Each structure stands twice: as structure tokens, then as C-alpha cells.
């Protein structure tokens, strides 16, 4: 990603071979359009100074050893959202040929020749010394000279047998910048096989596109589309070798991922894949061809801590390094003036006996490494680096063996059929292949188990999320729109009532029912007691009459008469009591026009002052205990009200869903009619009137389940 000089344009690239252009408005950015690229771009950079186009262009550093300069029109989208920019023009570019193999062969020649010359010089000195001491003769000396010539001839043969390796897969371009002297020259660094060097290349014009060439079409997706000129530009890019190459010393061919120049250009900060940060001095500002002394600092993880990005603050005081292991380091950087002073000082000073003894600064922090821990860490880092070097050497040898095997295989295919070697003869040890296949099968099984475990873990996590956020939702928010009108109706997004609600409601209803039954039993008990008291009174009067009759008449006849007299006396007393009540009632009966003044005043007061009747607004009213609402009854009423509200909301949502299904059926029917009209228009003349239906489908607001 990169901003232009004005800070108004912002561009990013991703691994799906797309490049997005944004407009920056303060802290906000707005996507404007995207461009499809021919390959993945590891870095994009604004380029200024092209005489062909006054507007700034973009440099694309691709993962197939290509660098392309592209001009993208800057315009706003006519419609809302982003759009694809299909008229991006590729101006210049190049495909760098791999020269790392040749450079390594040259370096190996120089190294082995220098080692041979040093060993030869030492051998000559030893022979001369032995000859002077008389331990060898002239013949031995001449024989040693012949052996030396044989060693030299053997060395020359071995060096002549060295062949540069060319990788099958192009190395990716990781970073680059434009030369300050000439904007058409670039310094780039590559990864994989071509790592360990910085290359200077020139932007070259593209080859002319073939005339009347058919437009290529991309297939395999949901819709076919024409491939843009930018996507097909790789065939027009010219291959070239770098103008200049500069070796990065002592980096063990670890890819250089990022760099940043200081303000003066005399220093460059480098971040490597193995976690090392280097401060590289330059003899000439902004020129990698003049590398000088350097300082290396290792603070990232060797295996998981590549320095993906390194930057300097505006005053070169601090270094900001971001690692691939998720670490973010800020380091203090010595200024160039202070660096020159420190370098000019003596590195070591012997203490003088004249002066006072120098107090050495001791480590006082308990968290710091001890000498033994530092030694072990240094040994471990050395072993890790040796292992990395061995692994890189093994990979390089494997690449050479693969290349030789491929050449031999191609050579075998070009031979006549009767002279070809059977492919089964390639297998030196058949049981070794079977063993490797079994190991591969076991690894696949282990991988399948890991994938199954991860899939199960993710499915459980998804189910938990669904249970937490979606399972409790009875109906989602749905907006149902009318045909050809702005009217709409929405559903009520509600959660299901929890099971605890229904359990509590059922328990409260059962308790209320038990209380009602207990109250009814109490009422029945009171009625039975009243009847028992009346019956006791009658029995007492009857017993009195019986006593008097029994006193007069003896025997069975007297008992019968006494019983009859008791019934007659009870009936008489009852009639007399009822007659007295009627007389008292008739005596109290007022005239038809009579009105109680207290009632009249009370009615007038109630008409003027009474509010809600259930609240009993009278100042002297006191509700009886049986009529007072308890907390349990209020809770039951609240739960029943919540249940009724939920049922009515659910009923409304169900009716809305039925209405949506009806609308979907109508849309389906209209689409069928539209297809029929489309078939009928085929038979009509071209200048005939074409009638088609414009049917609006259900959108995401009406059908959020999709």
C-alpha cells in the first residue's frame, strides 16, 4: 500500500491479483475502483518523473520477477460503490532473468582460487624451508612442483565443470525504489533463489500487441468476462539482465524483505527474513553499488520473526521494525554525527597503573542475561544459523538435482522409442518408494485428523454462537414492501419466552388454584356451622315441648304425640318470626317520592370527585383483606400479560410471513408471465412493440434468511 505525495490517493494490492484505488479525505478513505493484475503484487509504489504522462504512475513489483509501470485513470465512480477500471494502461516494464546462479559460480571461483593461492604459497614456503634445511632433495622439490601443477589442473577442471543454476519458478520481487539520478532505473531485491543480492534494472518499453488478436475470455467463473489488456501484458514484457548487481555480505542468502534510507542517504536500514536488522553504510548516497561497513542486530525470532517492514522516524532518531511473529519493536538509532565520533574513538584502552582503578559497570538487573546464559544463547544462535545454512545448501543441491533430472528426462523423451529408458528404471530402490508412499499416507491421515478436529471445533463454536444469538430469536426483523408503492410493514423482532417463564407461570397458576380451593372450603365450612347452630336451636325448643308432653302422656303414644307437637311448634315459631319480619319491613318502607338526603349528597359527591371505581377514591374507604392483591397475584398477572403479548406478536409475525410467501408466489407467477412474453416477442417482427414486465424480487430486507 502507498500514498501519493498529495496524500489524497491511496492504493493497495492483495493476494487475489487486484489493486484498489482509494480517495483519502482526512482520516477516512473511500474506495473508488479496482484493477485486475496479471500476477500478485508484493509492493505498489507511486512513480514520478515520467515524461510520457504528467500524472503519477504506479510501479507494480510482481511475484514472477516482473516490474510493470501502470497508468491508472483517476475518476470517480458514476454509481454508488466501487467499479472495475478496465482501461488501465501498462507503460513500461521488464522481466529480470535470474543471474544469482552465475554470480554464485563467479564468487565460488574467486573464493576457491584465493584459497588455492594461499595454500600454494604456504606449501612453497614449507618446501623452501625444508630444502634449505636439507631434509628434501632437488628431485623431491621438482616432484612437488609436478604435484602442484596437477592440483592446479584439477582445480581448473572442477571450476570449469561448475554450471550456473537457473530456477524453474521465477523469484518474487520483494521491494524496490527508483534511483535518484535516473527515474528510469530501479534498485530491486528478489526472494527465494535470487536472494542475497540487490539488482539495478532499467524500465524498458513494452512490445507491441499483435494486431487483430481475439479478445481472451476468462472461463470457469459464474460469468464469462473479457481479460483486460493489463492482465495480458506479461507476453509483452521484455526479459533483461540487471545493469548492476551488488552482493549483500554475510546475509547467508536470507531474503531482504524491507529497507529504508536515512534522510542523508548515507545509511540504509535493512530487515531480513531471518530476523536480522542491519545498519548499512554507503559510500555514495542512495546507491547500493557502494556498500561499506555495517552493523547487524538480531532481536527477532529466527524461524517465525521475519522483519516484514522497517521504517525510520522523521528525524532518524528511532527505528520501527515489525516482525512476522506479531512483535513490534522501536529502537533508538544513533545519529550520523555521533556515530562518526564513536567510530573515531579507540576501541580498547589498557588501564594505567598511574591512574586510579577503573570501576567496571556490573549488571545489577536480575532479569538480564548472565554470562553463562549469554554464552548459551550465542551458541544456540550459532547452531540455528548453521542449521539454516545447511538447509539452504540442501535445498540448493535438491534444486540442482531436479534440474539435472528434468534435463535427462527430456533428453530421454527425445530419443527413439527403442532407445528410451523405461520410467520404472528411474526407481533405484522400489521398496524405498513404497516406504515413502506409506509415510505420505500416514501424514495424510494425520492431516485429515487435524482437519477433522479443527472442523469439529469450529462447528461447536458456530453452534454456540447460534444458540447464544440466533436460537432464542423467534422472528428476525423483516421489512415487507408493497408492489409499486412506498408502503411497507415490518415484523416484530422478538425472542422466544424462556422455559423458565412457562414453568413459573404454571407454578403460580397451580398455587392460585390451590388458594381458591382452600377459600371455597372455608366458605362451605362457615355455611355448615350456621346450619348446625340453627338446627341446635330447633332441637332445644323441641326438647322442651317433648319434656312437657312426656310429663303428661306416658308410653309410646306419648312419644309420638310429643314428636308431632315439636314439629308443629317449630313451624309456628318460624311463621311467627317471618310475620314479625314482614311487619317491621313494611313499617320501615318509605314513600315512593322519599329520598335519603345522605344518599343524595353522597351521589353528588361521587359524581364530582370519583375517579377510577376500582381505586375506591373515597377518603374513608378501606379495602378488605380478601380483596387486596398480593405480590404473588401481581406476578401472575404480569406473567400472563407477557404471555399474551408474546402470543399476539407471534400471531402478527406469522401473518406477515404468510403475506411474504404470498408475495413470493405472486413474483414467481409474474416471472412466468414475463418469460411467456419473452417467448412471444421472438415471433414478433423486430419493429414490433415489445411488452415486458418489470418484476422486483425479494431483497435482503424482505428475506434476511438467505
UniProtKB/TrEMBL annotation:
Residues 529-540 have a biased composition (Polar residues). Residues 384-411 form a coiled coil. It is found in: Cell projection, Cilium; Cytoplasm, Cytoskeleton. InterPro entries: WD40_repeat_dom_sf. The keyword Electron transport does not apply. One of its GO terms (cellular component) is cytoskeleton. Transmembrane segments: none annotated. Keywords: Cell projection, Coiled coil, Cytoplasm, Cytoskeleton, Repeat, WD repeat. Residues 515-540 are annotated as: Disordered. SUPFAM superfamilies: WD40 repeat-like. The keyword Repeat applies. PANTHER family: CILIA- AND FLAGELLA-ASSOCIATED PROTEIN 43-RELATED, CILIA- AND FLAGELLA-ASSOCIATED PROTEIN 44. This is WD_REPEATS_REGION domain-containing protein. It comes from Mesocestoides corti (Flatworm).
